[in-house]
């Protein structure tokens, strides 16, 4: 499978009127407008001021991306710690997905010592060189936490029928409001009659 999905296709859309604002550290956010009740609630929702921030490691650690379905006993899991050595295998050995099945995608990650704003998951799917689907899912904004976060995306249904039963090329990316790319990998899946 030699289909190439270029960076241009993975560009995220902008929300009209939304301005991410100036980047601030966790300490700057904690001190910002300390008497503003609404702002304090927002800061608390991000874990700012809770003392859970770790000064070690990367800003964000992404653990896994999983595909879960009630019709399958175990999820299909992309473990990001193992991703580097398996990138070529992910493209050559497609993941099998049962046709007409409902599934959810789940992202597991941890924010260590900074506020991450506007995380997005973007995925482009190609079949026979043509883009057949683009998914752009807002993951959200998160503050540092000792406990990992889990984000589940809305339920989707895999295509079905004889024409759908083929192999698809996929490129997935996780990016934030500042344009930082955290995860970027190519993989493939095949729609089949059974898992």
The CATH H-level homologous superfamily of the largest domain: Coagulation Factor XIII, subunit A, domain 1
CATH domain class of the largest domain? Mainly Beta
Helix content: 10-25%
Task: Compute the number of strand runs.
Answer: 10
Described by the principal axes of the CA atoms, the overall outline is elongated
Straight-line distance between termini: 21 Å
Largest sheet: 5 strands, antiparallel
GO biological process, one term: Rho protein signal transduction
Keywords: Cytoplasm
Function: Regulates the GDP/GTP exchange reaction of the Rho proteins by inhibiting the dissociation of GDP from them, and the subsequent binding of GTP to them.
Subcellular location: Cytoplasm
Architecture overview:
Strands 1, 2, 4, 7 and 8 form a five-stranded antiparallel sheet that branches. Strands 3-10-9-5-6 form a five-stranded mixed sheet. The longest helix is centred in the middle third of the chain and has 13 residues, at 80-92. Helix content is 14%, strand content 41%. With 195 residues, the protein is mostly beta strands. It has helices at residues 26-31, 37-45, 80-92; strands at 60-68, 76-79, 95-98, 102-111, 116-127, 130-142, 149-152, 156-157, 167-175, 181-192. The protein starts with 25 loop residues before the first helix and ends with a strand. The chain has two domains: 24-52, no CATH class; 54-192, Distorted Sandwich (Coagulation Factor XIII, Chain A, domain 1). It contains three helices and ten strands; from the N terminus they run ααββαββββββββ. Strand 5 and strand 6 form a beta hairpin. The mean pLDDT is 84.
């Amino acid at each position: 499978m030699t289909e190439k999905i270029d960076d241009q296709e993975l560009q995220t859309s902008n929300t009209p009127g939304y301005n991410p604002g100036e980047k601030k550290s966790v300490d700057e956010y904690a001190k910002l407008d300390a008497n503003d009740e609404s702002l304090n609630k927002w800061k608390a929702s991000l874990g700012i001021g809770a003392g859970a921030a770790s000064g070690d490691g990367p800003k964000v650690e992404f653990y896994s991306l999983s595909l879960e379905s009630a019709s399958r006993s175990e999820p299909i899991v992309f473990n990001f710690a193992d991703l580097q050595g398996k990138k070529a295998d992910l493209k050559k050995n497609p993941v099998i997905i049962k046709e007409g099945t409902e599934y959810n995608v789940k992202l597991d990650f941890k924010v260590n010592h900074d506020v991450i704003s506007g995380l997005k998951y973007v995925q482009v799917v190609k079949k026979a060189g043509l883009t057949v689907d683009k998914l752009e899912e807002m993951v959200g904004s998160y503050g540092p936490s000792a406990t990992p976060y889990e984000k589940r995306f809305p339920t989707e249904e895999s295509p079905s029928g004889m024409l759908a039963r083929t192999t698809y090329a996929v490129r997935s990316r996780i990016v934030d409001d500042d344009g930082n790319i955290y995860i970027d990998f190519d993989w493939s899946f095949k729609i089949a009659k059974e898992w």
